[in-house]
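Revision sheet: structure tokens.
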Amino acid sequence: MKTEWKQVGQAAQFATDLGGCVKVDDLHIAVFNLNNRKDWYAIENRCPHKAADVLSRGIVGDADGEPKVACPLHKRSFSLKSGECISDDEMGGVKAFEIKCEDGVVYLKLPLK
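Predicted:
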């Protein structure tokens, strides 16, 4: 699958240590800016439990050094690095996206349409 880097906003638009949501084409992506713009992560915003677009509103933390977000509805936790569900072996994970911040601009590596 071919991909491309797409600009999704300015770094200043994303709060530190919280999530934000961007919509690119038909994708809803949760973007996380951790440690004051040093660590950026992006995963699908849709929790697989009830198909709700809520992960960007989840509780951000860490599990043994792994950055994670807990779904605000069901408390299942997902790795911000891989999208894997780290709190429930039976729960499917979510897609993780490559993300970068250059010169104050945030980019996601996304499939070409």
